[in-house]
């Protein structure tokens, strides 16, 4: 297929993922200088012609989220002012997604604000993966394609965790995702009844479902400080599970996450490369990283050629 009008650029959040995507598409990664002035302001210079081109900007808003988000906004503005025909922001990990509603008086809905910022900057389309809640798509007035990591996660689960399997959601909000995985892996379903005591701290209280003697996979979209994950694993082990593993799409792994994982009863944490692993995470022998570059590459190809993206939601074994 002709990719002459396709241009792909990346910021500094996850250049390795961008290179993998370009390798799948057999295109060169576009030349762009994304750096910082001495006063901390971000400097962007696109190094090639994008006039009339279909431009894809690959940038996870991973930690430091504010810096990477600002890089993306300025990149969008740069290619817009360079007369790009269409601008798609490829955001494998969408930050601020957990601030999707008012949970207390006088608090913002930050996910909506970020959506407005991207649209105002000039993005025509958003391509992302495993949004924390699907309703965030409605915050945008431009098309949003929300891919799932299941086409890489489910085959891994079936190949590696196939002994009397149970899929457990660490909270009520993740039950639909866990149910979908359980159905496709012929596994039983469980749920952790969780109470959050204070900001950033979670205490798992009770397991709903039978895990006695089972191989358990805790399923979540994000692992941040790993408090929820490790508390859930503790409850599951106390309930008689044979082994406890976890699959989480976005490996934020901030603060005490690595120490908590190291001290936990989790045998394996499977994540994707929507966020690059830190050196500490790479040194943790329990973390396995799978690549979603081929899924994002297929989505970019289909969007560029005006083909359906819905085929990417199908899981083939």
What's the SSE blueprint?
Layout: E1 6-10, H1 15-25, E2 32-36, E3 42-46, E4 54-58, H2 65-81, E5 86-91, H3 110-121, E6 125-129, E7 144-147, H4 150-160, E8 165-169, H5 175-185, E9 188-198, E10 201-208, E11 215-223, H6 227-238, E12 243-251, H7 257-263, E13 268-272, H8 279-283, E14 287-290, H9 293-304
Parallel strand pairs: 1-4, 4-5, 5-6, 6-7, 8-9, 8-11, 11-12, 12-13, 13-14
Antiparallel strand pairs: 2-3, 9-10
Short description:
With 317 residues, the protein is of the alpha/beta class. 31% of the residues lie in helices and 27% in strands. It is built from 9 helices and 14 strands.
| Unreliable spans | none
Averaged pLDDT: 93
Classify the helix fraction into a percent range: 25-40%
Could you tell me the strand content as a percent range? 25-35%
Architecture overview:
The strands form three sheets. This protein has a seven-stranded mixed β-sheet with strand order 10-9-8-11-12-13-14, sandwiched between helices. It has a five-stranded parallel β-sheet with strand order 1-4-5-6-7, with helices on both faces. It has a two-stranded antiparallel sheet with strand order 2-3. The longest helix has 17 residues, at 65-81. Helix 1 (15-25) crosses helix 9 (293-304). It starts with 5 loop residues before the first strand and ends in a 13-residue tail after the last helix. The protein is α/β, with parallel strands linked by helices and 317 residues long. The chain has helices at 15-25, 65-81, 110-121, 150-160, 175-185, 227-238, 257-263, 279-283, 293-304; strands spanning 6-10, 32-36, 42-46, 54-58, 86-91, 125-129, 144-147, 165-169, 188-198, 201-208, 215-223, 243-251, 268-272, 287-290. Helix 6 (227-238) links the parallel strand 11 (215-223) and strand 12 (243-251). It is globular. The protein is 31% helix and 27% strand. The mean pLDDT is 93.
